[in-house]
Input
Amino acid sequence: MQPTPLAKSRRTGIMQYAMALPVLLLAILAAEFLLRVRHRTLRSTWPSELCSETQAVVWDEVRDRYRIVCLGDSNTFGEGLPSRQAFPALLEAQLREKFPQLDAVVINAGIRGNTAVQGLARLTCDVLRFKPHVVVSAFGANDGNLGRWPLDLIRERQMARQTTWSGRAESWLEHSHLYQTLRARMGRFLRQASELHYDGVEDASLSESQPRVSVEGFVLAQRLLVGRLQAAGCAVFLMTTTLSRSSFPVGAGSFEQQMAIYQDYDRIIREVAAASSSSLIDLQLLLKDQTPGQADPLIAPDAVHLTTAGHRAVAAMVLSSLEQSGLLHSNPDLRR
Output
């Protein structure tokens, strides 16, 4: 029985599609490759907010060393001080002196003004690319600060989307440079309304009286940070904030309201550490154990940032926590 003209036409169409599919796939792969090369070239020219020492770190120079990354905000960065006086650099010096056989390197991944949500967003590029054995995460000072920034709510919503299947699928797609390019070029058609504006117009005074990251957002950010780090095989140390002085500048709300928020966020850090079996570095205990005269030299006059003496004290506290964990006394496998 001879095939009908309609059947022949359909068969021809199927064969044409089958022949075109490899060509289309090859074109997509070629576009993806060329865009990756272009984006990598462009990214190398972007200014980085990381300290210059971290920007200069080369993988081949640290791959055979015991790698510790300190992720955080301006207190990790070392605001107002040379980077060699920030606690990550001081910790490395103390480790070299006390555990020379470990050959440890401590990488400073602190960025001024960062929240835990922002730290989570840069986890891959600023932390996991170093394949660290230990990560010290120190957030909360900016998260709990009254006076929400315009982008804070958007960042928090984008983070929350990672907990849904559709959000995870989109996060997977975002690894494609072709997808990123198409989305950027057609953004006004593809972006969801929640990424472009608030649900209604938010009152400015209300925004100023809200923390930069909500309580729920801070809990989620801490859990996601710990989860991703532990999944990558990192030992995690969570650090509480340094804020405890009555001279802390309050931009909105009352001093009592601001301090209550910080107490809540420190409590969240402790609870997440306990629930995830992470180690806790409680700076509040360090400050409370000092007499007023002893604690004052640790915090700068702005009541926010650590002084040189404060960074030395924090480095010693982190070292003590590392020793108590037993990580420094074992023979770690540096091949990761």
